[in-house]
């Protein structure tokens, strides 16, 4: 560890010790759980840069803990404290290091009721009761050791960890982490082979017909950091300039091997994406993202992003697929969608995407990514001046100015996430209705 991480680990231990003292003073029962329990049970210490203390309390003690107990903790440590639901950030007064307390709520239920949940709900950021777990009060408690200190935790905590983190026991040595079972990891490895085969096809087709493409986002990160796939990733991200996209899709459709399927956006078909996918057995292998030229940063660039997302909303409304981002926006979009056919909406979307094509726009944006406009907007020279790298044995073009690009996307991109954060955001299967209607 470097000097900063040693200091930080000491700060985590300091706040944990004071919390244990204050909780005992108030007679509050608590249990080490979630990621802190995982660290204790597997490696016995907190990994570098880990700054969380995750504890579970009885739901009936919530108001007391969030009030007088935390007030006492703040008084004892003289720390700066900010609260957001069940998440509390403490800033050490001398070294200004932040430590995050995450509280889980345990509500009483029978063992039978607890087993009805396939997975314990422990996803962050889904409301103030995201940690409200239907599991029995874990009495009597066991103890685990973290950084040389014993802490209380659940009885039979191994069952909890297996339910929460699946294949958790060797997660710090396993490059795939702990969000998949061993069977799922084996299946993922096989699927990645299909992805590589599809990428090989794309590369050979591009060489033969002088087609232009480049790897994007996590696939560039995988090429740089891992020499191929990010171990837990399950698809390959490819970017194609909007002016090159029609020919590219035409050639892919014409020559695609039979084991793969090409899914494209089109009017009147339930395909809830605005970009093309190459799939195998209905599972995505390659995302073909259109890279859309946009003006320099300013009002026009923001409006271009807004209208691109707006036409997507209208299309989703027409096909019966809509994730509500804003009730007000949804109402406006539904009113406009009522007067337009899906064919008209798609024509407007296509015209919008090509508005600045062939105009030497200074930037390109991946309009239909899950990331923000700021992250997905990159200089045109990064897009047009590609470099070649090895991706799992296939020599492919990737986004130019690779270091600057990855820093722009991910910050410190060479540091791997903790095992419990090694997960993709895609469904295991790409499910759509009436697949034959748009399979090509």
Describe the structure.
39% of the residues lie in helices and 20% in strands. The chain has helices at residues 3-25, 34-42, 62-77, 111-115, 157-165, 182-209, 217-225, 245-255, 299-318, 327-339, 342-353, 373-376, 380-384, 402-410, and strands at residues 30-32, 52-58, 80-84, 87-91, 98-106, 132-133, 142-146, 149-153, 214-215, 236-241, 260-263, 276-280, 283-294, 363-366, 377-379, 387-391, 394-398. The strands form four sheets. Strands 9, 10, 11, 12, 13, 14 and 15 form a seven-stranded mixed beta sheet that branches. Helix 6 packs across helix 8, helix 9 (299-318) crosses helix 10 and helix 9 runs antiparallel to helix 11 (342-353). Mean pLDDT is 85; it is low at 1-6, 118-132 and 433-440.
Helix content: 25-40%
**Biggest beta sheet attributes:** 7 strands, mixed
CATH architecture classification name of the largest domain? 2-Layer Sandwich
Number of helical segments? 14
Task: Report mean pLDDT, rounded to a whole number.
Answer: 85
Any idea what the shape is? elongated
- CATH class category name of the largest domain: Alpha Beta
Assess the beta-strand content as a share of residues. 15-25%
Distance, first to last CA: 53 Å
User: Could you say which structural class the secondary elements and strand pairing correspond to?
Assistant: alpha+beta
Q: Radius of gyration from the CA trace?
A: 25 Å
Note poorly predicted spans.
1-6, 118-132, 433-440
State the domain count. Answer: 2
- Strand runs, count: 17
Return the CATH topology of the largest domain.
Beta Polymerase, domain 2
């Amino acid at each position: 560890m470097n000097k900063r991480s040693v200091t930080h680990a000491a700060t985590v231990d300091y706040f944990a010790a004071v919390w244990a003292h204050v909780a005992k003073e108030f007679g509050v029962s608590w249990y080490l759980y979630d990621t802190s329990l995982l660290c204790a049970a597997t490696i016995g210490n907190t990994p570098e840069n880990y700054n969380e203390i995750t504890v579970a309390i009885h739901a009936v003690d919530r108001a007391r803990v969030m009030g007088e107990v935390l007030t006492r903790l703040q008084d004892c440590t003289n720390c700066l404290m900010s609260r957001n639901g069940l998440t509390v950030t403490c800033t050490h007064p001398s070294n200004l290091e932040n430590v995050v307390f995450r509280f889980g709520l345990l509500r009483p239920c029978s063992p039978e009721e607890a087993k009805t949940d396939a997975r314990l709900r422990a996803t962050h950021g889904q409301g103030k009761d995201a940690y409200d777990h239907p599991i029995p009060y874990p009495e009597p408690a066991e103890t685990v050791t973290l950084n040389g200190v014993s802490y209380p935790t659940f009885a039979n905590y191994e069952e909890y960890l297996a339910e929460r983190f699946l294949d958790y026991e060797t997660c710090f040595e396993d490059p795939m982490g702990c969000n998949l079972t061993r069977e799922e990891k084996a299946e993922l490895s096989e699927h990645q082979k299909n992805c590589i085969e599809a990428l090989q096809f794309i590369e050979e087709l591009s060489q033969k017909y002088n087609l232009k493409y480049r790897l994007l986002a996590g696939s560039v990160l995988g090429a740089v950091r891992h020499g191929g796939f990010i171990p837990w990733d399950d698809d390959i991200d490819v970017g194609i300039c909007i002016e090159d996209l029609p020919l590219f899709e035409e050639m892919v459709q014409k020559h695609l091997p039979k084991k793969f399927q090409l899914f494209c956006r089109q009017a009147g078909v339930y395909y809830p994406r605005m970009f093309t996918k190459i799939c195998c057995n209905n599972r995505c292998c390659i995302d073909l993202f259109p890279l859309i030229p946009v003006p320099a940063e300013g009002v026009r660039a923001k409006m271009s992003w807004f209208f691109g997302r707006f036409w997507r909303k209208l299309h989703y409304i027409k096909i019966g697929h809509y994730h509500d981002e804003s009730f007000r926006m949804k109402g406006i979009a539904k009113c406009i969608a009522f007067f337009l056919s899906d064919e008209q909406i798609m024509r407007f979307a296509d015209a919008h995407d090509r508005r600045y094509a062939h105009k030497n726009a200074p930037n390109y944006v991946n309009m239909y990514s899950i990331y923000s406009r700021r992250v997905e907007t990159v200089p045109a020279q990064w897009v047009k001046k590609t470099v070649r790298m090895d991706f799992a044995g296939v020599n492919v073009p990737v986004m130019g100015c690779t270091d600057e690009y990855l820093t722009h996307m991910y910050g410190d991109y060479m540091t791997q996430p903790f095992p419990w954060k090694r997960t993709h955001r895609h469904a295991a299967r790409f499910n759509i209705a009436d697949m034959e209607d748009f399979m090509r």
